[in-house]
Amino acid sequence: MIVLKTSHELSMMKAACQLSAQALQIAGEAVKPGVSTWEIDKIAHDYIVKHGGRPNFLGYAGYPATACISVNHQVIHGIPSKQVILKEGDIVSIDLGAELNGYQGDNAATFAVGEISPEAQRLMDVTEQALYKGIEAAISGGRIGDISAAVQQHAEGAGFSVVRQFVGHGIGQKLHEEPEVPNFGKAGRGVRLIPGMTLAIEPMINMGTPDVRTLKDGWTVETADKQLSAHFEHTIAITSNGPVILTRP
Ligand code: MF3
Ligand code: CO
Q: Are strands 168-170 and 198-201 parallel, antiparallel or unpaired?
């Protein structure tokens, strides 16, 4: 079942999403060589709690942290750790969200640690651009496949590959709602987009193979070929005036 949000609910979503966006921004500012992913997680956790929110990944399906922090060839769901120290040249994907007054926000971005290679920078840029292409295609009257195809075309057109085993999702009072929002597919296919839908669009783009595998910790997803991966995510609303980015900082 797809839950459509009233304008009141959209304003509640906006508040949760703004807190999520600010927490992501603060976490991103903490990214530096020598910092552990545990420290970044703690900064995000304390920021969300201090502003009256609840870290909505923490405890979700048993997830043990506020943020998912995935370094280099890790795609998503990296568990923050005191043992994982960022170093110059790494790229680090931070995914986190906040619940505020019963509504959920969810967003992600990949950050550079100091100076990175031009290829890593291009992967990050193309992934962020692919997210915005997807958002631009999220037009009332269109279909989910319009979003999927826009993301896929941009990423593959740049010579990168799209992760298929994980997808974006509806979001609202629950972190994961229907419908699924794949980052691959055909325009004109899938669920019709209508005002009041709120979606988390989240391309995960790999430099090499699209294949991924999950580590024995049960969470961390990495590329099968150990090449780099990037991840950007916004929570958006479909409106009669076009897509609105609820997590725009
Ligand atoms: N941001 C992730 C998503 O979009 C959620 C991570 S799963 C969790 O689905 F368990 F860490 F919450
Ligand atoms: Co998400």
A: antiparallel
The whole-number pLDDT of residue 220 equals 98
- Closest Cα partner for 72 from 210, 206, 203? 206
Dihedral through CA 205, CA 207, CA 211, CA 217, nearest 10? -80
Return the H-helix or E-strand segment holding 41.
helix 37-50
The ligand whose atoms approach the alpha carbon of 234 most closely is 2
- Using the 8-state DSSP alphabet, how is residue 225 labeled? T
Burial (0-12, 13-18, 19+ Cβ within 10 Å), 134: buried
Q: Where are the domains of the chain?
A: 7-245
- CATH superfamily assigned to domain 7-245: Creatinase/methionine aminopeptidase superfamily (3.90.230.10)
The model's pLDDT over 75-87, given as tens digits with 9 standing for 90+, comes to 999 999 999 999 9
Given the CA of residue 61, which atom of ligand 1 is nearest to it?
A: 10
- Categorise residue 89: left if φ over 0, alpha if ψ from -120 to 50, beta otherwise: left
Q: Residue of the nearest CA to atom 11 in ligand 1?
A: 57
Instruction: Tell if the pTM clears 0.90, that is, is over it.
Output: yes
The closest of 66, 64, 46 to 56, measured between CA atoms, is 66
Is residue 70 within 8 A of residue 92, CB to CB? The reply is yes
User: Cα 199 to chain center, whole Å?
Assistant: 11
- Looking at the CA of 198, name the nearest ligand: 2
